[in-house]
Amino acid sequence: MVRNYRNNAFASRLFLSIIVEYSRTPQFMTFLSLIKSGIITYDWRGYTSKTGKYSGKNHGNAWRIKPNAKAELFGEIEKVEL
Fold this sequence. Notes:
Helices cover 24% and strands 22% of the residues. With 82 residues, the chain is of the alpha+beta class.
């Protein structure tokens, strides 16, 4: 997850803080279990815009995980402030 405060006029006058969460080696069986329990979901966003700025672009799909379950899936998550 990346937090970007550039669009917040008040915060951008104070500082710019970007925090990146780094994770690796998800557990596949845990992944399947979290899908079954509804903690991980799949967003079907496979459509193409017909007009406008993103005309002809496929917006792709996404896996979503509830924030409090990330450690269960990945084990260790390292936060790095850039």
